């Protein structure tokens, strides 16, 4: 593997991006290479799961001794955990700019949140969504009355198509992504909300990708519901949340049937409670909610201008480098825009003549770079983009640095110029080195598990 060399005559903005914007856990993780060496792991897969912020990891160490069951425990640790858990709701509400009476319900992730909301749609109301959505914001609506809209080449034309569907009546909810998990392009959520409300509909924003990269203010933008995931927001433990108007949530089908979600239980019936408890049956994910809230507090304190510049510089640098390589195409949804749309730190690309999975395996094994490949749980969009077998996605975050992007660009250029240095084969649907020399840590299983071996990102 060739050594990455960064031009010494860099602009001040690029020089600043040589360092991570914030400290994350695992930033100096060493990745073994097929040639027997090792290199600092270049994590360019933030859009799948972001590493925990170092401040979140430190907070977790403080919190763990107090971890206990919440709400009905009289013990000291239970009281501390309950206080932390309920305070986390207030933090999340503030983080997204929520209204004082908005409910905050903790879930497992964005997918869980949207499935919960699907059980709260008023009878007879339709859900309207675009074909650019992640499956999490597409599949739950197929169980209720729904209609879909194919995104047009421009934002303006897409909004016109949405309005045409709204004008037909019956639409109760418009479900829209805040930022594409495939290309990073940001959709105008405030304008979408104005359209929806004009025709008596509400709007839910899938902010799984947007929230880790941009400030949200759902009260200002009149967004009815927002959903997000902790694992993309620099928090571990698989917690998510839905924040929004109480009436639908208070009258909707309880998301889980069980303890804590009830006012009264008989052997042959139940009276459900209202508020967050209605949908949070069972023992909650206290540590997940607490670390999600702590990550949100940290991000809320960032210098927004410097934060956005760091990400924008890295994204622009990578796109420029990739587009300079023959056979590489950078993909966009809204190709008809006069100027490029605002976008988060996500770059989607393909290399002509190479399967995306093979390129991803090569980048990992020969360059220590982690990217995502496949269809990114967005099959309708990838098919429409002419990528039925998938593409590659590099995604940045607070811990990213210029050398990560440079090493990816160098690796792709070397592939196009020189080809593969090692042989690769397909096993269980994934490209892997024909001769694997890299070892897992001593404490880890020798080989990855194969349960559920066809994730939605593949086919």
From TrEMBL:
Any Pfam family matching the protein: Aminotran_5
The keyword Disulfide bond is annotated on this UniProt entry: no
Catalytic reactions on record: (sulfur carrier)-H + L-cysteine = (sulfur carrier)-SH + L-alanine
InterPro entries for the chain: Aminotrans_V_dom, Aminotrans_V_PyrdxlP_BS, PyrdxlP-dep_Trfase, PyrdxlP-dep_Trfase_major, PyrdxlP-dep_Trfase_small
Segments passing through the bilayer: none
Keywords: Lyase, Pyridoxal phosphate
GO molecular function annotation: cysteine desulfurase activity; lyase activity
Domain Aminotransferase class V: 43-408
Cofactor: pyridoxal 5'-phosphate
Protein family (similarity comment): Belongs to the class-V pyridoxal-phosphate-dependent aminotransferase family. Csd subfamily.
Name of the protein in its database record: Selenocysteine lyase/Cysteine desulfurase
Organism per entry: Crystallibacter crystallopoietes
Taxonomic lineage from the root: Bacteria, Bacillati, Actinomycetota, Actinomycetes, Micrococcales
């Amino acid at each position: 593997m060739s050594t990455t060399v960064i031009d010494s005559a860099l602009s001040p903005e690029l020089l600043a991006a040589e360092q991570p914007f914030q400290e994350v856990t695992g930033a100096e993780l060493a990745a073994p290479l097929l040639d027997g060496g090792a290199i600092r792991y270049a994590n360019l897969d933030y859009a799948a799961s972001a590493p925990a912020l170092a401040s979140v990891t430190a907070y977790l160490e403080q919190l763990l001794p107090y971890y206990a069951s919440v709400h009905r425990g009289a013990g000291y640790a239970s009281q501390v955990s309950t206080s932390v858990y309920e305070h986390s709701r207030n933090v999340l509400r503030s983080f997204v700019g929520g209204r004082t009476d908005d409910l905050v319900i903790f879930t497992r992730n964005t997918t869980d949140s949207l499935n919960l909301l699907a059980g709260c749609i008023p009878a007879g109301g339709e859900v309207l969504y675009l074909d650019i959505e992640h499956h999490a914001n597409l599949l739950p609506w197929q169980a209720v009355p729904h209609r879909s809209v194919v995104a047009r080449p421009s934002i303006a034309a897409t909004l016109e198509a949405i309005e045409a569907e709204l004008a037909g009546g019956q639409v109760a909810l418009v479900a829209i992504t805040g930022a594409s998990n495939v290309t990073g392009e940001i959709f105008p959520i405030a304008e979408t909300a104005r359209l929806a409300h004009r025709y008596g509909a509400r709007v839910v924003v899938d902010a799984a990708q947007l929230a880790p990269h941009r400030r949200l203010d759902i009260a200002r933008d009149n967004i009815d519901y927002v959903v997000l995931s902790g694992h993309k927001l620099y928090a571990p433990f698989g917690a998510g949340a839905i924040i929004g108007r109480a009436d639908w949530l208070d009258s909707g089908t309880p998301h889980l049937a069980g303890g804590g979600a009830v006012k009264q239980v008989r052997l042959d019936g139940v009276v459900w409670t209202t508020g967050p408890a209605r949908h949070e049956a069972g023992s909650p994910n206290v540590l997940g909610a607490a670390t999600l809230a702590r990550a949100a507090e940290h991000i809320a304190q960032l210098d927004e201008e410097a934060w956005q510049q760091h990400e924008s510089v890295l994204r622009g640098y990578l796109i420029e480098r990739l587009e300079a390589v023959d056979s590489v195409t950078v993909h966009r949804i809204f190709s008809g825009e006069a100027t490029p749309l605002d976008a988060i730190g996500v770059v989607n690309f393909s290399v002509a003549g190479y399967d995306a999975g093979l390129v991803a395996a090569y980048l990992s094994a020969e360059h220590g770079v982690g990217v995502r490949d496949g269809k990114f749980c967005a099959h309708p969009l990838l098919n429409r983009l002419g990528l039925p077998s998938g593409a590659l996605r590099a995604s940045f975050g607070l811990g990213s640095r210029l050398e990560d992007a440079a090493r990816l660009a160098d690796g792709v250029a070397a592939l196009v110029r020189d080809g593969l240095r090692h042989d690769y084969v397909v096993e269980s649907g994934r490209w892997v080195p024909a001769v694997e020399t890299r070892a897992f840590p001593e404490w880890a299983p020798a080989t990855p598990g194969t349960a559920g071996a066809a994730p939605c990102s593949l086919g």
